[in-house]
Amino acid sequence: MLKRIVYMMMCLLKGVFLFSQSASCIKFNPTFGSEKLSADSVYYLNVSDSIKITSLRFYVSNMELLDNNKSVWIDSNPCHLIDAFNEKTLSINIPSNISHSSLKFNLGIDSTTNVSGAMGGDLDPTKGMYWTWLSGYINFKLEGTSNICKTRHNEFQFHLGGYQHPFNSLQTVFIEISSKSTIEINIDLLKIFQQINLAQQHHIMSPEQDAMDFSEKVINSLSIKK
Amino acid sequence: MRKVWSIGIVLFLVLCAFQITKEPLFSVPTNWPKPIYDFSKNPLKSQKVELGRDLFYDPLLSKNNQISCASCHSPFTAFTHVDHDLSHGIEDRIGTRNSPALMNLAWHQSFMWDGSINHLDMQALAPISHPDEMGEKIESVVLKLQRTKNYPALFLKAFGDSIITGQHTLKAISQFMLTLVSSNSKYDSVMRRQAQFTPQQKNGYALFQKNCAACHAEPLFTNLQFENNGLEVDTTLNDYGRMRITKNKSDSLKFKVPTLRNIEFSFPYMHDGRFKTIAAVLKHYTNGVKQSSTLSVHLQKPMILSSNDKVDLTAFLLTLTDKTFLFNSKFGYPKK
Q1: DSSP string, A9-72
Q2: FRET label pair with A115: which of A129, A179, B132, B287, CA 20 to 30 Å apart?
């Protein structure tokens, strides 16, 4: 009897251990300032200007963990479509048994993938992240409404893409991280809106200089949760 | 025992013969360049080609289930539309460009008059999504296909999966389009030394090589480049072509050079279908070329053609008609 209890305890412990191991992941935390991003919330830029977010979706690709500049893990899945309002897309599993000091990934889809024809999975054009009038993936999509935008239904739409020179908007992110099991990356939309003038800039819909500039602002909004 | 052996050998030979006579789905014609399309990423398979053909002719791909790819790309007119200068879409909407003829697409690097599409697989997305063409979303096309009685089984046969995806839908359409090879015109027979030009056609060929071949390069009869061929801007359309895609002023008024193969059947001509006849096209090149900073280098010097030259040149252009392509039952409306 005692033997059986000990055995069960060991199994349980093993289970806990395994669980903690599989919990190793890279997690994206979309926020507006200090608040968790939600589709139902109204956010304020200042006393009078409000913002609602209806869509935040973006591709991360070619994830790689490095330890002292040496690659220790390359994601076997080359691409993930992150959707701020779909919880299960926010985490990417990583192996737990390796030590690492930095993380590298692309925000967007590289040019080779962009010219390789019809792809499946997260890259299937049915995902709504592909331009149909001009071939290429939309790397980053941010949509919503704000009273500042004097547009139809006060809408703003930022579709960032473009893989060809001179309008390649792909961004490579390199961040130093501590060797924790869960790496949390904040993406703070407030930081993006503080860098632009929403009254004047409310649409980006094609590969252009504005898309490249905006993509840099997106990178500036990323930070590692300490 | 010997009998068994001989029966076995006969059977083997019959099987071999069957294998040999089975026509390949695609082959590179003699003396043609290597195709651009990467077949290793979408290997041709008859079930996929047939599925692609079903999709090509199916109006389900449009928002109101009335317009198919074939509505603007009809097989008997070299897969283009000859009744209109500009393409017609759902609810009688009219587009801004002339539907191009479809053939030999495996050799193309980019698609559409302005090269906006970078891969044959992605080409179908453009007309499917355009509000003035099929006005539908690929997401909805996939949902509609999944709900039909026949398509899940056809996708299963073709791709080993009855769950329909955008990727498989597009790859199947590509497969059918890749098989649309036109390489059996009289011109081709002459090049293969199986026929001879008439003296008139021969003179026309010489004129063609001197005046037209820089852009309409053999054997595809297009150099696949973007050129400004000196057309006056149609102020009802204000279409500046390639510049819209590259946002580069040096691409103003440039359009992709179309093939001249099957030109007899692919009228009207030019990106906006402004010319109904070959004679009108030739008149443009001899008398109508408008000078501008982006005018093709090949049109800088005036083209001089006598009326006899034009007759001969036209006689040559008609040797580019390929009846085995135009009336190939494998390309036509699928048998139900």
Answers
A1: HHHHHHHHHHHHHHT-EEEEEEEETTEEP-TT--EESSSS-EEEEEEEEEEEEEEEEEETTEEE
A2: B132
